[in-house]
Amino acid sequence: MNDEHESAASGGHCSCECAPVERRCDTLVIGCGMSGLGAAIRLAMYGRKVLIVEKHNAPGGLNGFYYKGGRKLDVGLHAMTNFVRAGVKGPLNKLFRQLRIKPEEFALCPQLGSRISFPDAQLRFGNGIALLESEVERLFPSRIDDFRSLVRIVEEHDALDTSRPQAGPARARVHAILKDPLLAEMILCPLFFYGSASEDDIDFDQFCILFRALYLEGFARPFEGVRRIVRVLLDKYRALGGERLMKCGVRRLISAAGRVVGAELDDGSIVRADNVISSAGADETLSMLGNSVGVDEKGRALPRLSFVEHMACFDAQPRDLGWDDTIVFFNSSSRMNYRRPSEAVDTQSGVICFPNNYDFGGPRMNEGMLRVTALASYDKWTAASPDEYERMKESCAERMLGKALSILPNGAGALKRTALTFRDTFTPRTIEKFTGHIGGGVYGSPRKLRDGRTPLENLFICGTDQGFLGIVGAILGGISMANSHVLSRHQV
Ligand SMILES: Cc1cc2nc3c(=O)[nH]c(=O)nc-3n(C[C@H](O)[C@H](O)[C@H](O)COP(=O)(O)OP(=O)(O)OC[C@H]3O[C@@H](n4cnc5c(N)ncnc54)[C@H](O)[C@@H]3O)c2cc1C
Q: Which fold would CATH assign to domain 3-66+227-300+445-491?
């Protein structure tokens, strides 16, 4: 490539109107979120020439960060799930081993403790199953053996076995095991919110993955937030010689004879690649080949679940106001309703998170922060005019904060002792704009491609639509796609 083409790389075509700039790599990775980075680092580690292309200017995808109101804010981080101490068997330490990252590089600090809040019962849980088990024994003494059976079933279930069909819906199965409807619904509530792409249910494989991630393992976060994790991953990738093109997405994939041979980027340039791993979503990726997408076998639209999240900062530490939970999963009736609402937001259920409430071992954040997440109607948010959209954001933020205060101990009273210093809200429209996920689908399509395979033999899906969710799940999903489809067996 001559200098003229090099300098034209950001524009795709050089000024003399000759052929578009063309790059070549072994594997093209679409998306610089957690799963794309996981796949790319793993491949670069084995000497592969990897190129990540990301359509936005910031890395991290759904778990990115941004600057607003003089603050560095996480897009979505409540907690990193799957937290276990160094040396304990589990997905987190597998991730460290596979990416040759030292656990201390992530600087994870454990949660203080979380809670499931229903009108007639409160179940506390911490890292490891012990606290939840004792809470179940206290509140549902006649069901403790059933709860222990459920734990054993989860421990023995190989949810990652992609050689068999998906396990099927979990809700009825969990009810049958626990035999107490309230207990079953309470156990399901956090798992729906942290990873179900299906309305009112969750696949049993996914249930087991999340049960392990939330209850058997637990929550942690770095003091700095997700920036730390993204930085460690990017540094690793750079040190291995990996290349990255930001603010330049894939416009279309180019295929020939059942294989993908390359991609045309937003700037008109072409990338030729032997393999492509995409974290953009299954339907989103297939649409880059011109396929019609987002429908089931009968042509019905596949619903996507999306959220509104409101964050409020205040000039006090949450614990000084009597709020010492790390995360509260709440529901306002005895049965969980987990579906797309007809209103802009459904505050009947949701998640409240205090990023301050981790054991940071000394340092304190400058101000308190409360994040509230609730199910949202993508259609309502996208149909709104710009003025309506802003009004909806304000009114939903008020409702969500009001709801959170009604759940928290002495909520409204506590807030009178402090002052709100900053607020921000993001909606399904924000999620769609910044990740390209159809329908603002936080957990992607309800139909998962667990082995990552697509109709094209060298095009693979990683991350959300492969069924690997959350930070740890997404990174591991990327790693497993690199291992099983691109690297040969003797290398891994
Ligand atoms: C509100 C919210 C709260 C969350 N809270 C947590 C939490 O507390 N803990 C946790 O572990 N997880 C949480 N998650 C989930 C977590 O963020 C995701 O499961 C995970 O980050 C998904 O990673 P991914 O790489 O699969 O996908 P994504 O993060 O969606 O990455 C895909 C990337 O591909 C890019 N892309 C799309 N199309 C193209 C294209 N055509 N060309 C180039 N690039 C493209 C996108 O811009 C994006 O950067 C939360 C998510 C949300 C929305």
A: FAD/NAD(P)-binding domain (3.50.50)
